[in-house]
Design a protein that fits this description.
With 316 residues, the protein is an alpha/beta fold. The chain is 33% helix and 15% strand. The strands form 2 sheets. A 6-stranded parallel sheet has the order 7-6-8-9-10-11, sandwiched between helices. Strands 2-1-3-4-5 form a 5-stranded parallel sheet, sandwiched between helices. The protein is globular, with a radius of gyration of 22 Å.
Length: 316
Amino acid sequence: MLKLVLLDCESIGLDISMDAFRAYGELVIYPSTAPDEIAGRVRDADVVLTNKCRLNASNLAEAEKLKLICIAATGFDNIDVAWCREKGVAVCNVKGYSTDCVAQLTVAMALSLAMHLPEYGRYVSDGSYTASGRFNQLSPAFHELRGKTWGIVGAGNIGMQVARVAEALGCRVIVYQRHPNSFYPTVSLEELCLSADIISLHVPLNDSTRGLIGARQIELMKDGVMLINVARGAVTDEKAVAMAVESGRIGAFACDVYSTEPFPETHPFYAIKDKPGVLLTPHMAWGGVETRIRLIREMADNIKAFLEGERRNRVD
């Protein structure tokens, strides 16, 4: 019987059933695993399941039975894939499972920032509305999205889903990506920064995208631009973004991802987290209930395919 070890169940959610994995052997679940605990916990595992634990030669060397690593994510930069390939350990990720949920948060962030929903909600909840004696409140000023230009940086599955919703809301959509887009005008990053009222980021983190949005790109942006990052924290220069928020160059900013997670008090965003027009969320875009159920099902299907000799979602 195979032994399957799930190292960080809490990061996927304790409210989601893991029974789909039990069809393939004994399942051992750990809510979380510290770096110095990994080696001991995977030593006799045939299959390791993880979301964010870093797996490499230093903690896998003694896992002599290890055959397969299943990542509960699309990104796999936390796995030393080259070492796994050399040792004959298969590595699978899950693609496309969170497209709808991440796109949904992106649009929700844009709508919340445009409408100042947190401020208006507080105006009612703190009793100000009742005390005002007025039937309405129209400050701070809010705006329609119709007629605005929405720049999509990275037109993969998520970016394209956001583009479709943005278009349905009446926005003009432009796209920055390596290859021309057959649905929306493809422009340079510089032109996108110059033209867009709203910019949302949907690129993977790699050598070509690290620091993609920095001081130079921000300087090109319209005064008061709305910037949304649901990609990876390090695709922006976070210090430059925070400075632009403080100065008002960026008029509205939403972010769900950070170069350090959770970000510490020394992080540039800690100083702006309570500012009006700033909406920071705790890397939750991917995690709707339906999304996570889909994720577990896809991971189980990866295991099944591997055991049947098929290559499915392999990244090794």
